[in-house]
From TrEMBL:
Keyword RNA-binding: no
Protein name: Type-4 uracil-DNA glycosylase
Reaction equations catalysed: Hydrolyzes single-stranded DNA or mismatched double-stranded DNA and polynucleotides, releasing free uracil
Organism per entry: Thermococcus paralvinellae
Domain of life: Archaea
Length: 188
């Protein structure tokens, strides 16, 4: 993983590599049972080289704390490892260039549970494991069981924590989904 992280830090496979301050490979435990996969680094992530350290990160920390988890118990990363200008959505080409890194991270960590945060991440992860993509409003908090060479992975898409900043009712949905995540975690 360390080698992979070094490779990501110097990657220039897509144009975002020219625009970033720091690439954000991911952080947390390499033995984590849960992987959280966000979308792409924002301003603070780009400044610090760490995932979810801005306002959305505060929400994520709060949700983790509510179910008794710390960052060092989980692994947190994004589908795209460099910040898109003005925080625009990552393009299809950027996702295509960058996602092999995420695929490799999943193979190394072998998580029991993957939580895609937001619709881009949900869409990538569900397609990767052969599931049909549906609107996040419909499938957040639902579980999908993927079979892999190293066993079963439970996929549980959730809203992106950034939505909780401007839609309080979605924060409640996130809270409920996290409670459900706690129950699943206790049984894997
Ligand atoms: Fe490389 Fe991904 Fe950064 Fe593009 S976004 S330069 S593919 S690490
Ligand atoms: N939003 C994301 O999707 N990822 C981060 O790392 C920060 C904000």
């Amino acid at each position: 993983m360390k080698k992979l992280e070094e490779k990501i830090k110097s990657c220039k496979k897509c144009p975002l590599g020219m625009l970033r301050t720091n690439a954000v490979p991911g952080n947390g435990s390499y033995d984590a049972k849960i992987m959280f996969v966000g979308e792409a680094p924002g301003y603070w992530e780009d400044q610090k080289g760490l995932p979810f350290v801005g306002r959305a990160g505060k929400v994520l920390d709060e949700l983790l704390a509510e179910i008794g988890l710390k960052r060092e118990n989980v692994y947190i990363t994004n589908i795209v490892k460099c910040r898109p200008p003005n925080n625009r959505d990552p393009s299809e080409d950027e996702i295509k260039a960058c996602s092999p890194y995420l695929d490799r991270q999943i193979d190394i960590i072998r998580p029991k549970i993957i939580v895609p945060l937001g619709r881009h991440s949900m869409s990538y992860i569900l397609k990767k494991f052969g599931f049909e993509v549906e609107p996040i409003s419909k499938i957040h908090g639902r579980t999908f069981e993927a079979r892999t060479l190293f066993g079963k992975i439970i996929i549980m898409p959730m809203y992106h924590p950034a939505v909780a900043l401007y839609k309080p009712q979605l924060k409640e949905e996130l809270r409920k989904d996290f409670k459900k995540l706690r129950e699943i975690l206790d049984n894997v």
